[in-house]
Amino acid sequence: MWNYSEKVMNHFRHPHNVGEIENADAVGEIGNIVCGDALKLSLKIDQKTETILDAKFQTFGCGSAIASSSALTEMIKGKTLDEALKINNQNIAKYLDGLPEEKMHCSVMGMEALEAAINNYRGIQAPEKQVEEGTIICNCFGVTDQKIIRIIKMNNLTTVEQVTNYTKAGGGCGQCKPEIEKILAEVLRKEKEKKKTPPRKMTNLEKIRLIQETLEKEIRPALRADGGNIELVDVDGNTVYVKLTGNCQNCPSMGFTIETFITQKLQRSVNKDLEVKEVKE
Fold first, then answer.
1. Residue 175 scores a pLDDT above 90
2. Which of 28, 45, 110, 181 could staple 41 via S-S, CB 3.0–4.6 A?
3. CATH of the domain at 254
């Protein structure tokens, strides 16, 4: 029998903000009833300040799923979208004074629903969708290798059992567990190598080439899909100067796109210390 905190039990027995906001400004849906868990999060947002004025949820799942969803809505009300995006599954579990490890996938579902809702509002493909373009490892719950890798890194997981607790992968028929074990071993091996081998300093030419490749392969296609584009203007140390064209020029979400989408892509592919600045005519 799992031990639940008093706070988890309170949010389960008396969930806050249950329902759906009529004419919501943003909606995020995660999971699948067929797989046992589903969550729909709707938000009312002040469009001038991007502050979350109200949040409601509908969920199909266990008591931990209800408690995690209820807690999430309380955590994000009054926050700006950028502040809300900093909330991860560990923050949700901490707010509830902890969750049984076997139920941590409920906090992950809440985090992903929040990301999906905010990116729905901003017209940007949600991060979990971007990273989950991979091979399905767990057919029972539709979990991809990319999601497994993401959650392993985010939560410092070290065992297959933990991966199952946080993603549900391997929690059905169990046939995918050997593949999960391979993925886990490879992630841990790479993380160990990172700690052992100091990174070689990249030359300016290498940096510029990698920035151009990332813009061309990962960033430009997403912007073009919405009628926009991006040009590399200059690179000065760790500062990347870009020019946005097309629909991107006057887009109200451009600040978020630069600070989060473009910057994170370049930091992940090139250098974690890169800063992106827009050059306007």
1. yes
2. 28
3. 3.30.300.130
What pLDDT band is residue 1 in, cutting at 50, 70 and 90?
low
Mean pLDDT confidence for 194-209: 82
Residue 74 near residue 114, CB atoms below 8 Å: no
248 catalytic, yes or no? no
Same-domain status, 116 and 224: no
Pick the residue with more confidence: 149 or 280? 149
Helix (H, G, I), strand (E, B) or coil at 238: coil
Among 106, 176, 248, 251, the one annotated catalytic? 106
- Is residue 1 in some structural domain? no
Buried b (16+ CB within 10 A) or exposed e, 85-120: bebbbbbbbebbeebbeebbbbbbbbbbbbbbbbbb
Q: Which residues contact 190 (CB under 8 A, 6 or more apart)?
A: none
- CATH number where 186 lies: 1.10.10.1100
CB contact set of 162 (below 8 Å; sequence gap of 6+) = 101, 155
